[in-house]
Design brief:
Number of domains: 2
CATH architecture of the largest domain: Alpha-Beta Complex
CATH class of the largest domain: Alpha Beta
CATH superfamily of the largest domain: Mur ligase, C-terminal domain
Number of helices: 8
CATH topology of the largest domain: Protein-Tyrosine Phosphatase, Chain A
Number of strands: 6
């Protein structure tokens, strides 16, 4: 378990790793094989991808989080205060599952999308400041200005990207470019 946490914690894949480890043991896969597999783990692009530290603020690209469940896992895995960049083509998402995480971990929300009204209405009772934009560079700038050293800026949209971007990869690449331009 220590190896699993050490290897996978930052990647946000600890739950998946635990399930794979348990199922591997059920099929009598040797512990050494499991250990070697976990040691060689590499995170996917656009999935809790650490982009850069800028003046002590860590920027994480989780553009693959195109639904609320995926964003929940991303938020849940963070241990430092979060500036959350969320939003996109929202088809009536239910954000109730992430509200406790917002209360506990999120200090600012930047809504990035052509229509963030559903997200805004569901988070209106949180104490987080909320900003809204339709431009990735502006979203990153707002998040950066809201952050302090030790904070995390997390792009984990909880929505598909097709309102402002070609796809989640385009959204993630634009995020990375905007971060590098700070």
């Amino acid at each position: 378990m220590d190896l699993l946490e050490k290897t996978l914690k930052e990647s946000g894949n600890i739950y998946s790793g635990m399930a794979k480890t348990i199922s591997s043991r059920l099929f009598d896969v040797r512990k050494e094989g499991i250990k070697n597999s976990l040691n060689g783990f590499q995170n996917q692009v656009h999935r809790l991808e650490e982009v850069l530290h800028v003046r002590g603020i860590l920027f994480i690209n989780d553009s693959r989080a195109t639904n609320v469940n995926a964003a929940w896992f991303a938020l849940e895995s963070q241990e430092k205060p979060v500036i959350w960049i969320a939003g996109g083509r929202d088809a009536g998402n239910d954000y109730s599952a992430v509200l406790p995480l917002i209360e506990k971990k999120v200090k600012t929300i930047v809504c990035l999308g052509s229509d963030c009204s559903n997200l805004r209405s569901q988070i209106q009772n949180t104490e987080c400041p909320v900003y809204e934009t339709q431009d990735m560079n502006h979203a990153v700038e707002l998040a950066y200005k809201s952050g302090l050293p030790g904070d995390v800026v997390l792009l984990s949209p909880a929505c598909p990207s097709f309102d402002l971007f070609e796809n989640y990869a385009d959204r993630g690449n634009q995020f990375k470019s905007a971060v590098r331009a700070l």
